[in-house]
Amino acid sequence: MNYPEDALTRAGHLLYKELPEEYRYRDVAPAAGELGDLEAYLHGFGHLLDLIRHTTEQAYADAFAEQADNGYEIQPWLIPYLAELVGAELQAPDPQARIEELNNAVGWSKSKGTLRNVDSVGDVVTGAETVVREGWRLTLVTPRMNLPPFSVPDVDAEDDLLGRTPAPLGCPDLRKLDRAVVDPQGGNPLFRLRYPVRDAEGISKGEETVFWASRARGGAPCFPGAYDDFSARTPDLRDAGDTASLGPHPRRTRIHMRPPDGFFAPGLRVVNFDKDDPNRLSFDAGALRKTYRPRDILERAGHVDAPVPDRLVVQLNYDLAIRKGNDIRFENILFVTHPNATEPARLRVLSGGKLTLHRCAAEVVSVAKPPNDEDIPFIATDSIFETIVAPAAAAELVYCTVMGALDLMRLNASDCLLHDLGDTIRCDDQSCIRYSRLTAPDGDATCFVKDAPVNTDIVPRFLHRWLREDSGDCVLRRPVFGEPGYGVLDTTTSPRIIHGAEDEGEMGAYHHRFFAASFAALEKKLTSYLPLGQEIALSYDPHLSLKPPILSDGS
Question: 260-272 pLDDT, tens per residue?
Answer without folding.
Answer: 999 999 999 999 9
